[in-house]
Amino acid sequence: MGVYFSCLYEGYTLPEPVAAALIETAEDLLKEHGLAVGEVGLILVDDQYIHSLNKKYRDKDAPTDVLSFSYLEPNGSDRPPEEEFAVGDIYISADRARAQAVDVGHSLESEIALLVVHGLLHLLGYDHEQEKEQEIMQGKERAILRRLDF
Q1: How confident is the model over 115-142, as pLDDT tens digits?
Q2: If DSSP codes are grouped into helix, strand and coil, which group holds residue 130?
Q3: Ramachandran category for residue 104: left, alpha or beta (phi over 0 → left; psi -120 to 50 → alpha)
Q4: Domain 2-148 has what CATH class?
Q5: How far apart, in Å, are the Cα atoms of 87 and each of 15, 39, 65, 79, 91?
Q6: Measured between alpha carbons, how far is 12 from 119 in angstroms, rounded to an integer?
Q7: Helices in the chain by DSSP H: which ranges?
Q8: CA–CA separation, 119 vs 133, rounded Å?
Q9: Each residue of 30-40: pLDDT tens digit?
Q10: What is the pTM of this model?
Q11: DSSP class of residue 5?
């Protein structure tokens, strides 16, 4: 199993203790959902990069804060449970995260943590299209972020 952090964003490096805490949290969340041997990529990018992904894969011509790409089969039954497999990739715009952190008055690292958790929950099948789904997802986000404490 592995959770890998990559930074394609020039001018910012996620502090090592923050990256380590987010990786550990992601690994714990994967284990809780029966995906202990799964792999996830966490990738920090700029607005231009995420804008191109958003346009190409979601037909939205604007940057966004986080995009999750799941590689799981809907029923998950085709893979042996002991073999490593790709769960998905999460792209986070450091530009959007910085602006949102300023807007709500917390640190950039706190905003990145929120976006990582949000993206992970999407990879695990959570959504927020319906009000009830949104309540469930936000409750999970809050619980996970309390454990991180930054």
Answers
A1: 999 999 999 989 888 899 999 999 999 9
A2: coil
A3: alpha
A4: alpha beta
A5: 25, 5, 20, 12, 14
A6: 20
A7: 16-32, 47-58, 94-104, 108-123, 131-148
A8: 15
A9: 998 888 888 99
A10: 0.89
A11: E
